[in-house]
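Troubleshooting log. The previous structure file for this entry was overwritten by mistake, so regenerating from the original sequence record. Sequence copied from the archived sheet and checked twice against the printout by T.R.
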Amino acid sequence: MAVYLEGHGEPRFFYANGTRPPNSSERRILGTVVRSGVISQSALARTTGLAQQSISRLVKGLVTMGAVAEGDRVLSGKRGQPGVSIRLVPEFAYTIGVSIMTEAISVILMDFSGSVLDEQHCHLPAMTRNAVLDRTEAIVDEFVFNHSIDLQRVLGMGVGISGRYIGPGAMYNTPHALDDWALVAIDRLFEERFDMPVWVENDGNAAAVGESLVGVGRQYDNFAYLFIDALLGGGIIIDHELMRGCNGNGGEIGLLLPKNIYQHPCLESLRQTLGEYGTHFSDVSTMIENFDIEWRGIDEWITKTQSSFSLLASALAAILDPEAIVLGGRLPAVLARKVIPHIDIYNDSRRGKPRALPRLLISKAGGDATAIGAASLPFKEHFFAAAA
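Regenerated output below.
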């Protein structure tokens, strides 16, 4: 669950830069712009449902704030003068995203437009708190130096980690490989080290949030996200908002498959299958870095996981009726393209009218999905809302 500094007021970003948090209407505009890239004021009015006069007034306020800039005039398809286009100002704010995996970390620097300015992936011999915090600090210092980042412009940091949320605060029941991170206030550990607000989220949920802002969410409002990493997880996006559930653990897609019955379609099972065919890797990260779709064992893994993928997709389609199901996480895109044709979503055709089914898509967020999603959390909290 995303966690914010309780009792600390707004992030230092606002008063340090002489600005204010946007109101709800401004956040709807900013959320629409980040998903559109460039958009006209008339299109903003149609998408958000706000009156044209309100859009004009609100955009002027956001321009004064420095969050958006006006660009070239664009045709609206109607009579009259072309409308002025609106875009986000990338250097207005930055965030840091951290992905804590079972054997490695990824750290990214994101600007206000949702672009990843820098990314580093680092294997660690032990995933202890000190090892992860020390390496993250070194990477962040390098980002700040290489990109001449004003720390006052860093809104905050997001952290994605594998595990179930148990609360209170940012406590997670992590896999055994992350024992040192289990049942501790993860947000406080990072806040003390980096002196900035920190949000913490389950890795699959974080990746789904990032996909909603800078990936498939630019075309689809509703989708289920299959987070395929060393383990299997996921996240559900409804009207651009993360579905958390009553206990903060919504989207635990992997729990749909009993391990003693179904082969989990995760990268650890792929690594083991490749080993059976003579291609051995010490961990998932090394396998991904050297990935070759022609390896012997790939087709065997696809065959073994076909029924699992099909059951997951069929269940998600039946229960959620989403526009799309996204294959993401650290699943290589070339492998996802080979997997998708083998996924069979059960469809009940009645009177010759089969029900509409979701599209099966490959993640479009790019880079480390969890780190991107984690970096999106501070922006999502304070700037980017759903259109309506």
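The mean pLDDT is 92. Archived copy saved in two places this time.
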